[in-house]
Automatic annotation (TrEMBL):
Keyword Magnesium on entry: no
Occurrences of domain NadR/Ttd14 AAA (ranges): 5-167
SUPFAM superfamilies named in the record: P-loop containing nucleoside triphosphate hydrolases (SSF52540)
Pfam family, one: AAA_28
InterPro entries xrefs: NadR/Ttd14_AAA_dom, P-loop_NTPase
Protein name: ATP-binding protein
This protein's record includes keyword Calcium: no
GO molecular function, one term: ATP binding
Keyword vocabulary terms for this entry: ATP-binding, Nucleotide-binding
Signal peptide: none
Amino acid sequence: MSHKKIVITGGPGTGKTSVVEILKQRGHVCFPEISRQVTLEAQKQGIEQLFLEDPLLFSKKLLEGRVSQFKEALNHPEKSVFLDRGIPDVVAYLDYANQTYPPYFTRACEQHTYDKIFLLPPWEDIYISDNERYENFEQAVLIHDHLEAAYKRYGYHLVEVPTGTVDLRADFIEKNL
């Protein structure tokens, strides 16, 4: 059975998680974003922003989690599985932070490929900072650019999701599978 692995990505504050939640409510299998979990675990250990303090360690934890999600998606009984961010997001954020990373990061992107990538663009009207999202809107736009470049570097065609209500965005994704 062929499994379709569908990534929903975009810079911080673009509405990814809200769209993923709606897709989940509509009966789709959705894997959650794991960076908040990694950030919260680090905060419990007294590290306020692990990505800012040790970008490579943070990214290693994300890479491990995203590879694990990818493998779980491969073995899931559902035909289509949505993922809130993909493996190339890890290198995009490191590129944004101007950090070097070991070759196995690149190999992970090359060896674990997705079937469809939906990119949510920066949208200032809905952008909100919080305890886990430290970037301002201008930084979110730069991250978006790095995400787009990373996915294209690995040969993906990105489908940009238009702004609008969460339901309209989920409708767009479902219609463009």
